[in-house]
Amino acid sequence: MKLLLAVAFVIALFFLSLSSAYNSNKSQKEKIFLPFKDKIEQGSIINTPPVCPRGQVKVGSGCRTLF
Q: Where does the secretion signal sit in this chain (predicted)?
């Protein structure tokens, strides 16, 4: 009975070590770079206002002071 319990314990440890090794077998590129959508949050990109303040003109994607 003790032998059966010891064998079951060894098998459980073996599968546990396999599962932890499987999670750490990512390529070096996957470890460094995150997917784009996981890295960027909504609102993290700076947007220019649709209407520029008084005394400024919209040029391209930004507001510039009028001289």
A: 1-21
